[in-house]
Design a protein that fits this description.
This protein is α/β, with parallel strands linked by helices. It folds into two domains: about 25-155, no CATH class; about 165-325, 3-Layer(aba) Sandwich (Trna Endonuclease, Chain: A, domain 1), CATH 3.40.1350. It has helices spanning about 20-65, 70-80, 90-100, 105-110, 120-125, 130-145, 150-155, 160, 170-175, 180-185, 205-210, 215-220, 270-285, 305-310, 325-330, 340-350, and strands at about 165-170, 190, 225-235, 240-250, 255-260, 295-300, 315-325. Strands 1, 2, 3, 4, 5, 6 and 7 form a seven-stranded mixed beta sheet that branches. Helix 13 links the parallel strand 5 and strand 6 (about 295-300). The longest helix is centred in the N-terminal third of the chain and has 45 residues, at about 20-65.
């Protein structure tokens, strides 16, 4: 005789009190914020500790003539005393010494350098020799929260010397402090080293390449830029017009119109961009937006021609060059004088040289009308 199974009684789910979900969400946010603050505090204390250790080593070496072997011995003794603590290798102790030598002022270390992770500081010690440039990268890293990879990228593309260098008419066309902030947002040249472009490049090729690599494009533009669209269409008197790239800047609170030119800057380019800015201000700008600004990116420019072209333009426009490592890094005097791929292959394989095509006098960009 089989035993009868008791029916499973489902207990009613406890009803959550009103407002519980909001409370849980708030507590989670507070815990995460506290964890972040604790992590930042630990990093700050660690960097300050490294600075004090480096300062003591530096002082002893200067006063008592300690050599490199003392650092090796110090590393062994400290590691024996604090086996659970990493970062006490001879190499890292030398970084501590270099760190203290680079930043002798403790207030700067406390307020800025200690706000960055230790290995960010090591990157700056390795890659940036100029003190003012190093200070600039420290401030920019703290302000924008750059990761180590982003910091390396900004150093390798020489952002310090490019930032704020575009030719603009912002001082005449924008109120202060908007004009100063807008000037610092732009750079010259822009480095699109992620693009692979040939000599006969067209504007559309550049545009499509930037859109394919939109994350890297926005990284090169700088913090605050948001992508709105490419070939942004609008109509004026039943005629279609297309903006190459339309962006929005969250700190400037304005639309940014980007026009790309494969060739050298021409004065008529500013008229076209001025027209687009008028259309964007009329069709898209709201009461909370500042006047739209334009960025004209070209392969080359003459400073005096740009200054004349912008002198009487009433819309805020900046002009800068764009570059890729593939096309722009070879000095002009060497273009066309190096061996071809066929000649290199023949030399490496020991075979006969393949007849090379006639060399061009120079490699440049061919501008195309749309």
């Amino acid at each position: 005789m089989t035993a009868r199974r008791r029916p499973i009684v489902q207990r009613p789910v406890a009803q959550l009190p009103c407002g519980y979900a909001a409370l849980l969400k708030d507590i989670k946010a507070r815990v995460r914020a506290a964890q972040l603050k604790a992590g930042l505090a630990v990093n700050r204390e660690l960097v300050l500790l490294y600075w004090h250790i480096g300062r003591e080593i530096l002082a002893r070496q200067k006063q008592e003539g300690w050599g490199a072997k003392v650092i090796d011995r110090l590393s062994r003794d400290l590691s024996r005393e604090f086996p659970e603590m990493s970062g006490l290798s001879p190499r890292n102790l030398k970084y501590m010494r270099a760190f203290a030598e680079a930043w002798p002022e403790e207030p700067f270390v406390q307020q800025l350098a200690a706000q960055m992770p230790w290995f960010h500081n090591c990157v700056l010690l390795d890659k940036v020799a100029d003190t003012e440039a190093r200070r600039w990268y420290v401030r920019a890293t703290v302000e924008h929260g750059w990761s180590r990879n982003v910091l390396v990228h900004q150093i390798e593309t020489d952002l310090y010397r490019r930032q704020g260098k575009a030719l603009t008419n912002f001082k005449r066309t924008l109120p202060a402090p908007q004009s100063d902030l807008a000037q610092q947002v732009l750079k010259d040249p822009y480095t699109f080293d992620f693009l692979t472009l040939g000599a006969a490049v067209r504007e559309r090729d550049i545009e499509q390449g930037l859109v394919r690599h939109v994350a890297r494009f926005l990284l090169e533009l700088g913090s605050g830029f948001a992508f709105v669209g490419e070939q942004y269409r609008f109509e004026v008197s039943d005629k279609e017009f297309f903006v190459d790239l339309l962006l929005y800047h969250t700190r400037l609170h304005c639309y940014v119109v980007v026009e790309l030119k494969a060739g050298e800057f021409k004065p008529e380019h500013t008229g076209q961009l001025n027209f687009y800015l008028s259309a964007v201000d009329d069709r898209l700008k709201t009461a909370g937006d500042n006047p739209s600004i334009g960025i004209l990116l070209c392969a080359a420019k003459d400073k005096l021609i740009v200054e004349y072209a912008l002198r009487d333009v009433k819309k805020p426009i900046g002009v800068a060059e764009w570059r890729t490592r593939l096309v722009r890094t070879l000095p002009r005097q060497y273009k066309g004088s190096l061996p071809t791929i066929e000649e290199l292959e023949a030399e490496l394989t020991g075979g006969a040289k393949t007849p090379a095509a006639p060399k061009k006098k120079s490699i440049g960009f061919r501008s195309e009308q749309r």
